[in-house]
Amino acid sequence: MATSSERSPPPFPDSEDQDVLDAEEVRGRDSDEDEDLFGSTSTSPVTEMDTTPTSDVSMKPPSDIMNDPLIEPMSSQTGNKPASEPSDDFFDLTNNVSVVAAAATKSDDFVDILGSETGAQRGEVVKADVTVEATIDRSEVTAGVIDPLSQQEAKQTSTAPVIDLSGDSQPVTSKIADPLVALFSDAPPAAEAKKPSSANVDLFDDEEGSDIFAEPLQTKPAKQPQKSLFGEPDEDVFGEPLGAISKKPVPKELKEKSVTTKVTAGGPLQDSKPADIFSQAAASTPSVTSTVNPKTNGVHSEEDGDIFAEATVELSLDSPRNERKKEATAKPSAPAPTSLPAAASLAKPQPPALEELEEEEEEEEEDKFDIFVSVKDPEKIGDGMNAYMAYKVSTQTTLPMFRNKTFTVRRRFSDFLGLYEKLSEKHGPNGFIVPPPPEKSLLGMTKVKVGKEDSSSTDFVERRRGALERYLQRVVNHPSLLQDPDVREFLEREELPRAVSTQALSGAGFLKMINKATDAVSKMTIKMNESDVWFEEKLQEVESADQQFRKLHALVESLVVHRKELSLNTASFAKSAAMLGSAEDNTALSRALSQLAEVEDKMEQLHQEQAASDTFTFAEMIADYIRLLGAVRGSFDHRMKAWQRWQDAQSMLQKKRETEAKLLWANKPDKLQLAKEEIAEWEAKVTQYERDFERVSATVRKEVIRFEREKTKNCKRQVITYLECLLQSQQQLIKYWEAFLPEAKAIA
Amino acid sequence: MMEEVKETASVLSVHDDSIKVTEVLKEGDTLTFIIVSQKLSGTGEYHVDRTYEDFEWLQQHLFSQGDVPGIQGVIFPPLPAKPQVNASPRSIKQLGFLALGECQPYCKALETFLQQVAAHSILSKNKAVEVFLTSSDPPGRQKVKKNIFNRLSQAVEEMRKEGHKDVDEFFQNERDHNLILTGCTKTAAEKFLDVVATEQKIAVACGHFSTALHLCVEPGEDPDKQAFSRVCVKLSEVFESIKKNMTSVAENNVNTLGLGLDLESRYQEAEREMLFRRTCKLVELENAQRNVEKAKPVKKAAMEEVKKAAETEFEHTSGVAKQEIARFQGARVEMLQQALVGWCEKQLLTAKESADQFNQHLEVFRGMA
């Protein structure tokens, strides 16, 4: 529920407002259901909405914690100085908005504010925005894109599940009412103050980026490009919303009011320090995104998220110059209809991207990812048991989302784990396969800590370094994960706050976690009567693949052990051959034997290299895949959870309906009203959860397909590397033998 | 006695280098070897079946030719240790290279033994050799009587006489050198055996990996899946050829340098035994001399007689030993050279073949991408 309300920004305000109007003015006109829903708005959903965004959506304590600080300044701002500043802004903005709406020339000022605001806003919504310029472009484009989509969505939903639309709009209206009350009543009790303010936050997320921005777009210029983008089917969709928009002078006022309240909260912040917007956004994003994120992908299922991702990727793949040019043209005339064709043409890659969304998404672009991460120079820092390993993380990229082409930071191992935790917390529930880092190894690390410079500890460090490098490369190769601000921060920022609580991931703990996930999955499969054969098959495949990979891993490890043994034995044979040579009387034979010893020494080197090649190309690759398969299972698990939630909501709804029937039978009209409200609420939830489930399913499906494709590609690449290495060592061997043959023949 | 020697010289009716151990038959716990040899007279071959006991019988007969002067100075071709059907780890260790594979190395070693015996100027005159090679009846199925060449008794005596100072500098040097070489060769052979064993393990591991990869193949029409399956199958083939490569490398190692080092090590052992026997004679002679010096006039003549006998025997032995050592040094260098060259050539061939194969695999994989 929260998700959809967050997600649906652009269209709903309008329809909402309209609905409010309708509901208020023509109560009788709407269906009973609708009326009921609106009745319920005033009572339960308000509290519901205020609590759910924090508790329900992310279900994690951090989000609560993070929400609070956010709420605090805002409420203080709204509470303390609403009298003077807001009013100014109010006029300013209304002016601006109206100017924009009239499509007259707008002040640069406004564009800036708008730009930076939406930039920051988008940055949060889209999850990973770096440069303001890029975001402007993108947000414009995306706004254009979202609109029709959500419009369409609104259209579709407006017919069948009216509940949904109204369910979404309800909280907003209530919120609009609430903050206003809060603002004007001026002396709210502490507890109450918090509620509206969190509602305010919602509003803020909801509408700031989209409302201000979407409105001008919608009212006027939007029609043309959208038509061009979407062609026929959308046309009638547009006829309607436009009609609706034109039909709402009053809501607009209402809305503008709400906008002002919002802007007073957000505006001054961004207004006063435009340069800092980015850093602020970056600083706050971890928290904001963690709460916003699950919501961002709300209504339109995750396809929308992809639009963003795709758009970003595509745009950023353009040359920066091109982009700047685009920006130049786009900025002054952003809402103007004339520039939109240009914008559309600049955003050309998008229509195909959209088409892809409809079918299977082609991931050719992935190869274009121009970012390479290397992890180098493992270094032990500190002494004794407090020592840790630090690695140099160097990034090479031409992506414009990064400020530099190359940059290097130092990260310790727990930072890598911390990154994974953040990513999996944010993206795991959405069904993304977050590449897992190597496990903590108590034994290996202790050896390193104790400082024994034996081969096993250097081997361990080297293995881990490689694993970390591959882990990071996988993360940045993932189109959605690359957009995450945490990833960017990890790669770019000089100092990273010390990651805590990575202890949970240590060694056995990690394995346990995986096992637990596996257990949970198997348990839930029994409960879940799988509707989708594809998932059923995939899950089985993943399970068997996991087993096979484990087997392969054991085999390769034993092969590596033998290779190492061979290298050792060759070395000792070389030694004894040298001894034999020195004991030999016959000079030619003695010479040949010492030559033999040298050859064997070289061969030992070859065997060692071969062992390393076995280790790093196969053993480590397979170990990676075992870990990744765990992550795949995790994503299945998340899908299962979404399903479970949906089912729970459904059974709850069933119960509520039964109570209603009972009440109806018992003829208790007073309680009946309450029951109906509850039913409406749960119906909304069921729809929401169902959609969540479908969204997660779609993501998981896409991710698994992507995973498999990557797996094949990666395997092939590794095999080629391995074979090249093998061939090379074989050729080296030939050289050694050829050099030795005349020596052997020279005896006697 | 001389006539007899002449007679026996013509007794051996086969080409010494045509002797082959072609087959080995397993009957319960006993192994029977088929020995084929070309007749000197022209066409035709002798086919005889011999057990290990027959070989032992032959060696005992060679040892116990009391009538041949200086027999003690002969470096007897070493007979490999008794093979075990259900070998214990200890006996495998004792056999070394010969325990590897399907008896081929062992047959090869027996073959070498027979050829060495037949080619030996003194030993080939023994009737037992002819009987062994040509008689269709198995000669040595009866209990062989132990003589002084019994390894056990020798081991006890060794402790006392090994360090005895030699009168002849040549032999003293040879003894010292032999001692070092025996040790070195033995370790080298052992180490090389370790290498081969590990190579075989790698081959096995590659085979397992290859089979396991085959299990990764997923059925289905999905192009992604098929692509992955193809990679798996191909990789499985790659590992199959790695396995083959390793197996042949190991085989080459065994059949050339492995056998060479094994034979060398056993021959060094045999030389040491011969030198030891000579040292025993020397000790005997010195004792006799001392006895003569200390002897009372009454017994002096008898002592002189003993001393004389010992002296002649020692001289014979030393003479034969000198020849044998010279022959042995040449033979072993040649043998080792052959082993090394053969080894090198074979390994080179294998490496080239493997490189070729890997190259093909690599091309296939590049083509897939």
TrEMBL record, chain A:
PROSITE patterns: PX. Keywords: Acetylation, Cell projection, Coiled coil, Endosome, Golgi apparatus, Lipid-binding, Membrane, Phosphoprotein, Protein transport, Transport. GO terms for molecular function: phosphatidylinositol binding. It is found in: Cell projection, Lamellipodium; Early endosome membrane; Golgi apparatus, trans-Golgi network membrane. GO terms for biological process: early endosome to Golgi transport; intracellular protein transport. Residues 672-699 form a coiled coil. SMART domains: PX. Residues 14-23, 355-368 have a biased composition (Acidic residues). Residues 190-199, 330-348 have a biased composition (Low complexity). This is Sorting nexin-1. It comes from Pundamilia nyererei. The lineage of its organism: Eukaryota, Metazoa, Chordata, Craniata, Vertebrata.
TrEMBL record, chain B:
The keyword Disulfide bond does not apply. The lineage of its organism: Eukaryota, Metazoa, Chordata, Craniata, Vertebrata. Transmembrane segments: none annotated. Residues 1-140 form the PX domain. It comes from the Eukaryota. GO terms for biological process: protein transport. The gene is LOC102198912. Belongs to the sorting nexin family. GO terms for molecular function: phosphatidylinositol binding. SUPFAM superfamilies: PX domain. Keywords: Protein transport, Transport. The keyword Lyase does not apply. PROSITE patterns: PX. CDD domains: PX_domain. This is Sorting nexin-6 isoform X2. It comes from Pundamilia nyererei.
